[in-house]
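Hi support team,

I submitted a single chain yesterday and got back a structure, but I'm not sure I'm reading the token output correctly. Could someone confirm the output below corresponds to the sequence I sent? I've pasted both exactly as they appear in my results page.

Thanks,
R.
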Amino acid sequence: MLRSTRAMPARAYAIATAALVAAVFAVVLGVVRPETLVHDWHGWRQADTATIALNYAHGDLEVLHPRIAWGGDGPGYVEAELQVYTGALALLHRLTGSAPVAGGEWRGRALSAAALAATAWLVWVWLRTLGLQPAAALIGTVALATSRGTVFLVSVQPDAFGLAATTGALVLFTRWLHTPRRRDLALSSLLFAIAGGIKPTFLAAGLAALAALVGHHPIGTRLRALRSGSLWIAASLPLLAVALLLAHGASVHADYGNTFGIISGGDSKFPTLDRLVSPMQYVKLAQVGLAFGPGPLGALGLLLVLFRRRHLTRPAIAAAIGLWAAYALVGVASMRYASEAWLGSHYHALGVLAGAVSLGVGVDGLLPLLATRPHLRRLGAAAVFIALAVQVTVALHHRRSAAAHWADRELQAADVLRRDLEKTVKAAALPHPGVLVVIRSGVAATTETGAPNNYEDPRIFYLAGVRGWVWPSDGTSVATSLPALRARGARYYVDPTDWPFRHPEDQRWLDEHSSDLGSGVFRL
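Hi R., thanks for writing in. Yes, this is the structure output for that exact sequence:
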């Protein structure tokens, strides 16, 4: 294939890429950051993540037994995914001497930003390993850093770690295809297992690895490559490891009754039959996907891959299309969450990777066309970087508008609760993990289809440094249910929701047995 003469060597492109990625994440970390993570995008999810990390930081690092705050008067062990991110955050808390309760969110955000920066570097390495020219690899890498999905993942959530592990696994697998060293294959298998443990949906990226294998080998040798025993062992181990982790999580739920809805309890992420056959569901999925996944530039990249494929190597085409296939599989499998931006934007993390890689590959297919047209080449480069700048600006704007209205009532109630705790509990400072609180969630116990719902809201627990029970917004009466919990040690009842008491007897019971502290907080 004809390659153009380049003014800059590959090393200069790599340095320029690193500088651009660092600048993007510096802007993302420094601009439009809410004062507290409960005001941030997916604040309830971040609060649970931060609580698990704080429990690790001030206790034992029991990676297989994470503890949340809404486990009542029990230990709070919860069915959850692999706690790599929270373990790292706990160690960072210990090293930096963080506060024992809410605060220091910059640590979690910085860890996520570092993981995403590592992902960007791995994208650069992977695109170069696939044979792309440095200019195309630069564009693909910066596309990942500037995507709206990446901007929203710079938060106290584990998805950035999963995306980094997935990309590293794909890089090592591609290296193994070029130079079959078992060490690379084993490390790739290990990283796939870690990524799948962080979120099982990352295992779908195995389709991209399979596509890269098919694209790497000529037609006559593909079947022989697929018969490799080492390959099948490496592919099976991540599946086995994640299956064992999920089985362990199910046993935790059976013993303690707490779950994030990974396998046991909670609402299903899988679509119902009526969703699968509804065209509007796919329209919604595509809209959310374009916003938080590949974005318009990533979709353009896929079109370039398809229409410029004669100018691309088979491994590069296969890798791009394989990632899109993996992303489509995840989107359809998790349609109920993935088609709602406020609920499942993090399910589009693989789409961020697919968009960045396909844009880089697609631009590489354009370079032969631009090799003899320097003015058109400069114009195209300027257009791409203007589009990338617009992309990150739009992402930051939406982050600002999304963060503006979250959790005001939770913040007010938590402030009232903390002030009263400082007066009534004989302790020098927060947290007060021995204080048990009952909190009314704003989410119902069942979904619109009648399925069980994950209604537990951890934000007040996180802010006040307490633990206890969460009630759904429906189906639980204060007058009939709260006396039993008060007998088990509940000291406060907190209702930050925007609806008045539905039953007069509930209000009468609170008037007789509690002190109204304001903002929906009652001392029992």
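A quick pointer for reading it: Confidence is low (pLDDT under 50) at residues 1-6. Let us know if anything else looks off.

Best,
Support desk
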